[in-house]
Amino acid sequence: MSDYTRADVCAAAIADAFKDDGEIFASPMGLLPTLGVRLAKLTTNPDLVISDGESLFLAGTPPLGKKDVVEGWIPFRKVFDVVAWGKRHVMMGATQVDRHGNQNISAIGDFAQPKRQLLGVRGAPGNTVNNRTSYWVPRHSARVFVEEVDVVSGVGPARAKAAGAAASRFNDIHRIVTNLAVLDVGGHDDTVRLVSVHPGVTVDEVVAATGFELALPEGEVPTTREPSYAELVIIREMLDPKGLRFKEVPEPEAAK
Question: Which residues form a coiled coil (predicted)?
Answer without folding.
Answer: none
